[in-house]
Amino acid sequence: MNKIVVIAQTPPPFHGQAVMQQYLVNADWSDWCVKEHIRLDYSDAVAEIGRFKLSKITKLFRLLAKIRRSTKSTPIDILYYPPAGPHRIPLYRDIITLLYARPRVEKLVLHFHAGGLNQLIEKLSAPEKWLAQKAFSRADHAIVLSSWLKTETNWFQPKNCWVVPNGIEDVAGPIDPWKQYNRKPHSILFVGNLKPEKGVLLLLKAATILKNLLSDFRIRIMGESHSTEMETHIRQYILDNQLTEHVELLGGKTGDNKWAEFRSASIFCLPTYALEAMPVSILEAMMYSLPVVSTNWRAIPDLITEGVEGLLHEVQDEKELADKLKLLLDQPALQEKWERPADENLKNNILSPST
User: Fold this and answer.
1) Residue 315 burial by CB count (10 A; 0-12/13-18/19+): exposed, middle or buried?
2) Is 137 in the same domain as 20?
3) Domain identity same for 158 and 203
4) Are 12 and 96 found together in one domain?
5) What pTM was estimated for this model as a whole?
6) How many CB atoms lie within 10 A of CB 325?
7) CA 20 to 30 Å from 330, out of 138, 156, 266, 278?
């Protein structure tokens, strides 16, 4: 029986890639392979992701030791590895790990949950590019989340490239959530790490515009801050622009507490311009039949067709974002256009774990 080693992040911290890889780790493959999980545990909190800490060097050597022990017990037929996004420190970690692991495994599968790595590669020095090529190139299989993202693997020249969209566990169930749940009218939900590229500051700017047009709306922001400076900046912006009656910071939530926010919201908004592939929070909003307001950016139009599942605005355009939100807030009947049973969303949007 084949042995597959899955090197993967799992929560905590909670972010889209870790959530998706938890599904992979939990999947039962015992009827066709032996699966071993080696956890990537470099960061304990969102604020640590992508940042250098001396302890991460120790964790890297522990990871390499686990790979060595695994190959000593029984040969590894397939190694699954998720490359990081466009940040140098995680890239160096990936290069060291793959240069060490590849001679010890039969086949390599790279799963590109994070996007934009090819953009960082273009900025590398010649020696860095040579090392990256040795580590990543000619993998046996590459997995991307959308056909649009296939081009981001061209530099790595995988032997095969497969499109496997993200999927999530159906926790809403096949019911009509609008009628069953206690929706709060004019309640806008944002879910994501609190950093600029996720669009949280853009949403606050749009809220400033909306405040002068509408009196009855509430924005609930769920997620961990990427830094204490960022959280301070957000709180100060809310105070300076008299948004305390309209904006509430929820912090990070998981489990039933998280799903309760989706159940009670009437609109989901993620004005992201991050180099991500397929935001899991959008899938979660669709599972609860929420109309989605997001950006016309990267693979998001593959998820959200303008006027079908929601509304799209151009990147970093707070005026257009405010206009799209106002359109939905002004017209409850338009919100009901996306009021469909959750089982129809499941059928149309591939909401099932990608295992």
Assistant:
1) middle
2) yes
3) no
4) yes
5) 0.87
6) 27
7) 278
- 325 neighbors 267 (Cβ within 8 angstroms): yes
Strand 33-40 vs strand 187-191: parallel, antiparallel, or unpaired? unpaired
- Give the start-end residues of each E strand in 104-185: 105-111, 141-144, 161-163
CATH number for the domain that contains residue 321? 3.40.50.2000
- The pair of structure tokens assigned to 181 is 């749940």
- Bridge partners (DSSP) of residue 161 are 142
E runs forming strands in the chain: 2-9, 33-40, 76-81, 105-111, 141-144, 161-163, 187-191, 218-222, 247-251, 267-270, 292-295, 310-313
* Region of residue 97 (phi > 0: left; psi between -120 and 50: alpha; otherwise: beta): alpha
The parent domain of residue 150 ranges over 2-163
d(CA 298, CA 304): 11
> Which residue blocks in 164-266 are alpha helix, DSSP H?
177-180, 200-211, 228-240, 255-264
CB-based burial, 230-257: b 16+ in 10 Å, e otherwise: bbebbeebbeeeebeebbebeebbeeee
Give me 66's structure tokens: 């686990």
Domain boundary among 131, 163, 195: 163
CATH number at residue 40: 3.40.50
C-alpha span between 184 and 283 (Å, rounded):
20
Residue 181 clears pLDDT 60, i.e. is over it: no
- Pairwise CA distance, residues 258 & 326, whole Å: 25
pLDDT digits (tens, 9 = 90+) for 22-76: 999 999 999 999 999 999 999 888 777 777 889 999 999 999 999 999 999 899 9
**DSSP string of 295-327?**
ES-TTHHHH--BTTTEEEE-TT-HHHHHHHHHH
∠ CA 265-299-289, nearest 5°, is: 25
